[in-house]
Amino acid sequence: MNSTAAETREIDVLGTKYTPDAWTNATPSILDKAGRNLLHHESHPLSILKTLIFNEFPNFAHYDTLGPVVTTQQNFDSLGFAEDHPGRARTDTYYLNASHLLRTHTSAHQLQLLAAAHTNDNSVLVHAKNAQAAPNNERFLVAADVFRRDEIDASHYPVFHQMEGVCTLSHADVQKLAPSTPDDIVDIGPENPVQPGHTAEDVHKVAADMKRTMNCMVTRILTQATAAQRDAGSEATEFPVRWIPAYFPFTSPSWEMEVLFRGEWLEICGCGVMQQSILQNAHANDRIGWAFGFGLERLAMLLFSIPDIRLFWSTDPRFSNQFAPAQISSFRPFSKHPPCPKD
Question: How large is the average pLDDT for residues 177-189?
Answer without folding.
Answer: 75
